[in-house]
Amino acid sequence: MAKKKIRILIAKPGLDGHDRGAKYVARALKDAGYEVIYTGIRQSPEAIANAAIQEDVDFVGLSLLSGAHNELFPEVVKLLRERGGEQIIVFGGGIIPQGDIPFLRAQGVEAIFTPGTPMSKVIEFIEGNRARVEGR
Amino acid sequence: MDDNRFLHAERAQWEEKVLNKVLQTHPERKASFSTGSWLPVDRLYLPTPLTPEEYQEKLGFPGQYPFTRGVQPTMYRGRLWTMRQYAGFGTAEESNARYKYLLSQGQTGLSVAFDLPTQVGYDSHDPRARGEVGKVGVAIDTLRDMEILFDGIPLDKVSTSMTINAPACVLLAFYIVVAEKQGVPPSQLEGTIQNDILKEYIARGTYIFPPKPSLRLITNIFEYCAHAVPRWNTISISGYHIREAGATAVQEVAFTLANGITYVQAALDAGLDVDRFAGRLSFFFNAYNDLFEEVAKFRAARRIWAKIMKERFAAKDPRSMMLRFHTQTGGSTLTAQQPDNNVVRVTTQTLAAVLGGTQSLHTNSRDEALSLPTEEAVRIALRTQQIVAHESGVTNTVDPLAGSYYVEALTDAIESEVWKYLDEIDKMGGMVAAIEKGYVQREIQEAAYRYQREVERGERIVVGVNAYVIDEAPPENILRVDPSLQQVQVKKLAEVKAQRDNEVVRTTLAALRQAARQPEVNVMPFVLDAARAYATLGEICDVFRQEFGEYQETVVL
Q: Between chains, do B371 and A44 touch, taking CB under 8 Å as contact?
């Protein structure tokens, strides 16, 4: 049986325009064989949740460097759950203090990749969840 | 070149008799070497003799065209660069306290960081400001916040740089009015507004309006300041963010100067005289770790800009041809791993900026890959500048690396690569067209991708990240901005709105709208009137938004 083509939305919530990391991750994931959609910068949590549901993605990757992650990441998870995208797996990256990670995980952000993380870790995370995605 | 024939013959002999033997027993570490930006690096550079005419044309003397060796005749022997740490967070009260601390520690200029809602023209109560108020800079909603920000700081004695672009005219107006209230006339004000919108479309993302009206706001500021605020640097044409987005050193210079060309042309098209405004243009560059490449980059940038101003724009005043610049060390070069190593990176970058002849410098703090800097980290960063300034000896002579065979060759190489880009952009119809096509963004992204792949594959070593890694506990002492700050700021905004004369606000905003509708009218006096009436930043920007529309990003991947 052919493997399912995993779909991933990479998004930048809030007002932060630093998109080097988000674009790198998007492109590297594409090169690794995933279907990737990138939203561009300055997206509201509503717009991200709607795009994720409409595009029927399996994962949403959020990138933020401005420090607003504790407000905006959980908001995306909440909206996904409210609008029928509760199965979508959310992960994040950016300048995120270690101390915030337990909180974000408790809010449903399943993994946080901080600066210097190799792409292999992100791919490992996605593959680690493949069974969940394919079992749907 | 004939003079060099002897040396080249000697070199051939050396290669044959000495070098080849060594290479056989001790091969070099890599098959080929390159700079941080992939310019090839030879094993050895030989002198390239210049005739006196060639020397004058390429290098000249400091303070003279083409300014390759610096914009002042004595450089740091006369006066050190301005030590200007970019700072601001939370409320105006907190930032005011940080500025007073930095001034007490020997900092010589202020540099204001605004939060993202301020940078994109939203008041703190706007739903789009959620989570962002006071995070990456200070929140400024009205003149009241600006009054608090500079309370007890004499604006006739301190020069202030403000990192503000899309709504630059509004923040400049707030600053001018605060000065008026302190009894300081605008003619005495010194400082800089970033006011560089093109790099926002390329790299930093805090744009509001489309390019055409944005360029108008910028030239309105040039014109207004030329007579009313003559000592103000009306723009800081910024390569910094272009580099942070992943550009090479060559791309940083090329795209920054291409933006500069666009601003000069826009001002000329608006009927301004080149020598009236060009002397107030300033630049802002990054400093990365490849010391010699960075020094060469600064020297090449000065030489190219001088030629552009003289030959393309027919400037007559030498001041119009001088590229004066602020430098910031490279934020994206800092690592979250082993953060103390960042002090060493920042020191190398500080040397690059100083050996390259910067007029002003911000040194990043070691903890910036983790959060906003703590006070202790900011102090070490400032001390780094002070140690280089007072203890290293590099400030005692002008352009100390000039004549280095390698640095001169690299300066020439960067210059020729930059001209290729400038020609290409001209062919595309200029920088606005190149940005709208996504050309510039794509070039930068290719470089960013290539760099990161090299790091991932271990071809490029980043100490502490892909080599010399240790197990580390998470850092303990990091700065956190109180999340309840948004409520504090929203309450303050409501108070100002309750106290101000709303009729005056309405009248000044209506007058501003009329001015915005007439392209030949300068909006600055109208923005100043609205500022005096305590109109909010969001209200003023909404007028422009309604009249000018909003820019939509060209997403390039």
A: no
Q: Which of B245, B208, B338, B357 is nearest to B296 (CA)?
A: B357
Record the tokens describing residue B290, joined without a space.
């490849």
CA–CA separation, B542 and B538 (whole Å): 6
Task: Count A/B contacts: CB-CB distance under 8 Å.
Answer: 105
For B536, residues 6+ apart whose C-beta sits below 8 A from its C-beta are B123, B141, B142, B493, B496, B497
Q: Are strands B33-34 and B40-41 parallel, antiparallel or unpaired?
A: antiparallel
Which residue of B116, B246, B372 is in closest CB contact with A15?
B116
Asked whether the predicted pLDDT for residue B2 surpasses 70, the reply is no
Q: Which two tokens stand for residue B57?
A: 């044309």
pLDDT at residue number B78: 97
Which residues, including other chains, have CB under 8 Å from residue B232's CB and lie 6 or more apart? B172, B189, B190, B191, B192, B193, B225, B280
Is the model's pLDDT at B5 over the cut of 70?
Answer: yes
Please give the pLDDT value at position B497.
Answer: 97
Helix axes B291-307 and B341-355, enclosed angle (nearest 10)? 30
| Local structure of residue B286 (DSSP, 8 states) | E
Cβ contact B465–A98 (<8 Å): no
Q: In the numeric block, which tokens belong to residue B365?
A: 């703090």
The answer to whether B495 and B140 have CB atoms below 8 angstroms apart is no
Residue-wise pLDDT for A29-52, tens only, equals 999 999 999 999 999 999 999 999
CA distance A88 to chain B (A): 23
Q: How confident is the model over B380-421, as pLDDT tens digits?
A: 999 999 999 999 999 999 999 999 999 999 999 999 999 999
Mean pLDDT of B63-79: 98
Neighbours of B320 (CB within 10 A): 22
CB of B422 closer than 8 Å to CB of B434: no
A residues 40-99 lying closer than 8 A (beta carbon) to B: 40-42, 44, 66-72, 75, 95, 97-99
Q: Where would I find the beta strands (DSSP E) of chain A?
A: 7-11, 35-38, 59-64, 89-94, 109-113
Q: Does B480 reach chain A within 8 Å, measured CB to CB?
A: yes
Please report which helix (H) or strand (E) contains residue B539, including its range.
helix B537-548
Bridge partners, residue B40, by sequence: B34
CB atoms within 10 A of CB B49: 12
The token pair at B72 is 């002042």
A114 CA: distance to closest CA in chain B (Å): 8
**For A68, nearest residue in chain B (alpha carbons):** B131
ipTM over 0.90: yes
Q: Does A14 touch chain B (CB under 8 A)?
A: yes
Burial of B12 (0-12, 13-18, 19+ CB in 10 A): exposed
Question: Under a CB-based contact definition with an 8 Å cutoff, are residues B370 and A95 in contact?
Answer: yes
pLDDT at B1: 47
Q: Is B285 helix (H, G, I), strand (E, B) or coil?
A: strand
At position B314, the amino acid (one-letter code) is A
Residue B75: name the closest of B331, B301, B394, B370 by CA: B394
Give me the residues of B, 135-164, that contact A with CB < 8 A. Answer: 135-136
Please list every residue in chain B whose beta carbon sits closer than 8 Å to the beta carbon of residue A71: 130-131, 483
Q: Characterize B77-98 residue by residue with b for buried, 16 or more Cβ atoms within 10 angstroms of its Cβ, and e for exposed.
A: eeebbbbbbbbbbbbbebbbeb
Amino acid at A12: K
In the prediction, which pLDDT does A118 show?
94
